[in-house]
Amino acid sequence: HHGYIEVIVGPMYSGKSEELIRRLKRAKIAKQNVIVFKPSIDDRYCKKNVVSHNGSKINAINISNPKDIYKYVDEKTHVVGIDEVQFFNDDIIDVIKTLADRGKRVLVAGLDMDFRGEPFGPTPKIMAIAEFVDKLSAICVKCGAPAHRTQRLINGKPAKYSDEVVLVGATESYEARCRLHHEVPRD
Ligand code: ADP
């Protein structure tokens, strides 16, 4: 078997989960053994599923340590899906590489940039070593143009550059925006 790495990136709402789920479901139709992981930090909608904003879903295993993936994958596994890959530590890079070297098709989805517009966690390195990369866009909520960035809002206002990536206690929300309308105030 020839293994390979396939990556789906883009901002929030660009359809990464939707596309990941679509590809995984098609692999299942082709009678491939599929297993899906996501970081336990992401508990959007449902702890045990990968769920897209439009409601499609697929069963997934929550893990916090990338190396836990080895406990679930065996010779019979054909396809390994990983969603929200940006939240894993850099150990995920070697796990993905090792699985592909062992002949698995590794399908990865995640944010390529954080709310500041900077490379997010392990995603850029995974893009570099992947055979295939698809960079999706959402629709900018300000102008309708293709949106490649995620706007972070804290209590309704653009989050500042200096704000922590994880901020406890504030009401925060996210929007898809184009480069022109993406705001990251510096103080
Ligand atoms: P991601 O995993 O990239 O966050 P999802 O697959 O969960 O994306 O959700 C994609 C869906 O989000 C779209 O099919 C659409 O129904 C919805 N959506 C909401 N806001 C937007 C937006 N600004 N641009 C594009 N799609 C949006």
TrEMBL record:
Enzymatic class: transferase
Any Pfam family hit: TK
Q: Which SUPFAM superfamilies match?
A: Glucocorticoid receptor-like (DNA-binding domain) (SSF57716), P-loop containing nucleoside triphosphate hydrolases (SSF52540)
EC numbers listed for it are: 2.7.1.21
Q: Which GO terms describe its biological process?
A: DNA biosynthetic process; thymidine metabolic process
Give the protein family.
Belongs to the thymidine kinase family.
Which residues does the Swiss-Prot or TrEMBL record annotate as the active site?
A: 84 (proton acceptor)
Q: Which NCBIfam families match?
A: PRK04296.1-1
Catalytic activity entry? thymidine + ATP = dTMP + ADP + H(+)
Q: Localized where?
A: Cytoplasm
Span-the-membrane segments of this chain are none
Q: Which InterPro entries match?
A: P-loop_NTPase, Thymidine_kinase, Thymidine_kinase_CS
Chain positions recorded as ATP binding sites: 10-17, 83-86
Lineage of producing organism? Bacteria, Bacillati, Bacillota, Clostridia, Peptostreptococcales
For binding Zn(2+), which residues are annotated in this chain's numbering? 140, 143, 178, 181
Classify the main location. Answer: cytoplasm
Gene name on record?
tdk
Q: Name one GO cellular component term.
A: cytosol
Description of how the protein assembles with itself and partners: Homotetramer.
| One Gene Ontology MF term | thymidine kinase activity
Output this protein's name: Thymidine kinase
Q: Which UniProt keywords apply?
A: ATP-binding, Cytoplasm, DNA synthesis, Kinase, Metal-binding, Nucleotide-binding, Transferase, Zinc
Tell me the organism. Maledivibacter halophilus
Q: Which positions make up the signal peptide?
A: none
Q: What positions does the entry give for substrate binding? A: 166-169, 174
